[in-house]
Amino acid sequence: MGTIINSVSYLNMPPRKDFLEILSLAGKKCLDDARLSMEEVNVLISAVVYNGNYLSEPALSSMILSSLYRDHPSANQLPGGSEPATFSFDLHNGGGGVLNAIQVIDGFIQSGEIKHGLIIAGDTPPRTGHPTNFNFSTTAGALLLSENPHSKGFVSFHTRTFPRFHDRMTSILTWKNSPLTLEISEKEDFLNDCAECATEAIEDFLARENLKPQDISLVLTSTHPHHFSYELGKRFPFNKKAVLSCLTDEAYSAGVMLSVQKAFTSGKFRSSSPVLLVTAGAGITICLALYMH
Amino acid sequence: MIQGCKIESIGIKLPERRVSTAEIADRLKIPGPLKLGLLTGIDSRRVCSEGEDSLTHAVDASFDCFRFSRYRPGEVKMVLCCSISKYVNGLNHQFEPPLSFLIKQKIGCPDALSFDVGNACAGMITGIHLANNFISRRIVENCLVVSGEYITSISNNAEKNIDSPKHAEMASLTVGDAGAAVMLDRSRNREEGISISDMVTISRYCDLCTGNQCSSYPGAFMQTQMQKIHEVSIVSAPPLIKSALQKAGLKMSEIHYLIPHQTSKLSIESGAKYFAHCLGEEPRQVIVNLEEFGNTASTTHVIALYKILNENRLKKEDNVMLLSFASGLVIGILIFPLGDLPEKYGNHH
Q: Distance (Å, rounded) from C-alpha A146 to C-alpha A168?
């Protein structure tokens, strides 16, 4: 039984008041493309990092779920004692949250507990407080994962942290310099360090999987830090043109969804196997996933 | 799933400082007496002092957990941080690197797979739900599910705003600070492991309790429709409990300890009464520990379990049900036999 990417969507929109609506739009588009309704999805995970209003509870995922069920008020409740269809929660690991969420959903699919899982990611500038170095625009993405007996899909995952670079990217919300400030700090070397860490992590991962760099037909990366895909392609001996270039620094948590969407649209995703997904984030944390058709 | 997963050990952290409900009630700008302690069943709660925060609580609870665990910190393979509050160095909300990353550095398992899980007060139950899957499928050998809650800022901020007993921030006055940690690993067989781990989100009730970071004062604020969220939680739970019991092959009367989310004594008692009415049976005992600790958000179940484990009254055959109600609306049910846990905590029956 394989866990496949059934569909993917990505939206880059001007900041609007209702970020929740944008996230839901991404989810809805993803479901529509797969011709699936929300009722058929068993798990929804939000990997959003910056939600615009520093929501702590409920989990943002439950609000996205509510929005996706808006057109079906009878759904997701307990009529006559039957169980609601969907379970939701948030998963946060900065730039790598989406790949961790894929691993979680793959686990539920492999154990036969679910058939479909939806991941939503995206970020928007904060509406209150004074952000420093917040360089992400309002983006949202969705990835629908489904069971498929005829395809391998995701075959392996690996997450590795490099604590010696823990100070390269930090982000805190603080009241110490009144007014409220969201302080994001990214050191100059962050890109180089991410590329170096990713190179080390990929070497280990491919060795574990008995693969050579030349075996990888397509590499899809997070879009943050800016030029990450380019820098990784320069350092690691992948095949020429294996690394899909995504030179945008606007997307954050949904960046890897943008890469997947570009590969889907161009037809590269379907014609490539194995596909390596790579994200880099604060920590430095490198998340890797291997996908085969 | 091929293998089972069990709770191997648990640990907690309770700050030393106590604040009584009477002190809080006295500070409110409400005319006339407010019997807050009587209404909630909370006499006092623990509150962070200087140098304590979400991170220190999570780390301290983890080290307490290691006292009872066969694993050393360096042997931990996965760390899930499930706190609602993410305060570090006082009231600084940590976005990145995530709290789980900081926790694994502090406790000394830098190579563990880690990420943060957010599901309001159902965070730790959600973390256990995920760990159960990872361990049962042999992706990891063990997992530390941990939470550090520094949530009393919502109570402090509510005090400034509350002007009537029906104010939307009244529920904020019930909270207390705490840390909790659960170590999970493989069970030798399915019988000694987690019998059932069921989670659902009834999202049409997602706006009944919301909490955000506060723009005016340090910390957060929370608004709750107390009566409504209690009603929908209680009415929604019985079919889920019934289904979970069926899957576990148990009757409610075979549950020795039901540990519900600790909100208020009246809510827990009326909920238990309603469940007994719907299911036709009662658990042997419903645990309420609000008196000393208040509502400690995602850590409540583990704090309550730890307390009864240390009262030397548990047996290895006893079945426990953790019943979680959280903003969202999330309902989580975890059923497991205690197995080796009582012996580890000095219960020799």
A: 36
* Helices (H), ranges, A111-227: 190-208
CB contact under 8 A, A107 and B84: no
Closest residue on chain B to A286 (Cα):
B113
Chain A residues lying within 8 Å of B203, measured CB to CB:
62-63, 65-66, 69, 76, 86, 88
CB contact under 8 Å between A170 and B97, yes or no, is: yes
CA of B72: how far to CAs of A252, B56, B77, B94, B109, in Å? 36, 19, 11, 27, 9
Which of the residues B91, B205, B206 would you substitute to probe the A interface, choosing the one with the greatest number of A C-beta atoms within 10 Å? Answer: B206
Per-residue pLDDT of chain B (349 residues; tens, 9 = 90+): 456 899 999 999 999 999 999 999 888 888 766 778 877 899 999 999 999 999 999 999 999 999 999 999 999 999 999 999 999 999 999 999 999 999 999 999 999 999 999 999 999 999 999 999 999 999 999 999 999 999 999 999 999 999 888 899 999 999 999 999 999 999 987 678 898 899 999 999 999 999 999 888 899 999 999 889 999 999 999 999 999 999 999 999 999 999 999 988 888 999 999 999 999 999 999 999 999 999 999 999 999 999 999 988 888 899 999 999 999 999 999 999 999 999 999 876 6
Distance from CA of B94 to the nearest CA of A (A): 5
Beta carbons of A147 and A42 less than 8 angstroms apart: no
Complex-level ipTM: 0.95
Report the predicted TM-score, pTM, of the whole model to 2 decimal places: 0.96
Q: Which of B265, B63, B258, B24 is nearest to B148 (CA)?
A: B63
